[in-house]
Design goal:
Strand content: under 5%
Helix content: 55-70%
Structural class: mainly alpha
Largest sheet: none
Length: 111
C-alpha cells in the first residue's frame, strides 16, 4: 500500500508541475518535478529493465524545459543530460520542443 501511495503522490506532483508550467510558474513547476525525482523508488527496475521510471525521465526533461524558459541555459543543459542519461530518448522532442528554444540557440547545445 505504501508503494502505491508513493506512486500516487509522485503522479500528483508531476501533474501539479504541469499545471504550474502551463500557467507560467516555472519555479513552482521546477520544485514539483525536482520532488518527483527525489521520490524515485530505490532499486527501481522497470519491466524493460530500466533503472529509473518513465515519470523520472519525463520529469528530468521537463526540468530542462523549466530552466530554458527561465534563461538558465547551463542548468537546462545539465538537466537535459540527466534526462538522456536516465533513458529519455525522444530526440525529435528535444530537437523540436518550443520550450527548449533557448537551449538549442546555445553554442553548447549539441543536437
Amino acid at each position: 500500500i505504501a508503494r502505491k501511495e508513493e506512486a500516487r503522490k509522485r503522479r500528483e506532483l508531476f501533474d501539479d508541475g504541469l499545471d504550474k508550467f502551463q500557467s507560467g510558474d516555472y519555479e513552482g513547476a521546477l520544485l514539483d518535478w525536482e520532488n518527483v525525482l527525489g521520490l524515485e523508488p530505490e532499486n527501481y527496475m522497470g519491466d524493460n529493465f530500466s533503472k529509473v521510471s518513465e515519470i523520472f525521465q519525463v520529469s528530468a526533461f521537463n526540468i530542462a524545459c523549466c530552466y530554458s524558459k527561465m534563461n538558465q541555459v547551463n542548468a537546462s543543459l545539465e538537466a537535459l543530460e540527466q534526462a538522456l542519461v536516465s533513458g529519455f530518448d525522444d530526440y525529435g522532442k528535444i530537437r523540436n520542443e518550443p520550450n527548449l528554444a533557448n537551449v538549442r540557440a546555445s553554442p553548447d547545445f549539441k543536437p
